[in-house]
Amino acid sequence: MAPIKCIIVDDDPVQRESIRSCVDQVSDLQLVGSYSNAIEARLFLQKRDVDLIFLDVEMPEMSGLEFLENFKDVPQVIMITSNKDYAFKAFEYDVTDYLSKPVDMDRFSSAVQRVRYYEENLKRQKKEDHIFVKSDGILVKIKTNDIYYVEAMGDYIKVHTPEKRHVVHSTMKAFVAKLPEDFVRTHKSYIVNLHHIDKVEENTVYLKEEELPVSRNNRRPLIEKVKEYRAR
């Protein structure tokens, strides 16, 4: 398996060195950059592709959350924070995992294992017409065509189908890894099934009797996906 190329973004030099030490202990992590602020990291990412960012939350000039808000097509992110209040907020931005300072090596290894899982599944061609989810303690089989949209709720997601809304303990990123390519993100909190879209107008997507928001960054990719889908 190819190494996971990663960068560190943290304004604290001691913390950067601590994360670097953790990275060095994991054989398939390849550190390709270390930056004291998000602006420098963003310039680097415009020139090179990476698989993973270890990202501090509280930084001057541009915070980690501002970075995620403004940077399109961000790779996998492991958020690092000394304030656990940011944990729920982090999942709103679809990060893969978060670590509390000081970083524990066992917890670091667990987060990297999650990254590996997503790397393997997101790159795998998905042809299944159904998925299994654990809803209300019961394993439920859902046909992917029956899913209208998926809504992020912190480290839970809500799967909207004609019969029921299933609340599942999962991040959005983990759930996307299970879905076929007919699903597209419209907003940091929503992924919709192209099959059920009726129309897209300005900053709103209409499907069935639902109206969902479309963020500025996702509007053009959404329209392109809709055109491609209807041209099949």
What does this entry look like structurally?
A hairpin with a 2-residue loop joins strand 8 and strand 9. The chain has 7 helices and 15 strands. With 232 residues, it is of the alpha/beta class. Strands 2-1-3-4-5 form a 5-stranded parallel β-sheet, sandwiched between helices. A 5-stranded antiparallel β-sheet has the order 10-9-8-12-11. It has a 3-stranded antiparallel β-sheet with strand order 13-14-15, with no helix packed on it. The radius of gyration is 18 Å and the shape is globular. The longest helix is centred in the middle third of the chain and has 18 residues. It has 2 domains: 119 residues, Response regulator (Rossmann fold, 3-Layer(aba) Sandwich); 101 residues, LytTr DNA-binding domain (OB fold (Dihydrolipoamide Acetyltransferase, E2P)), CATH 2.40.50.1020.
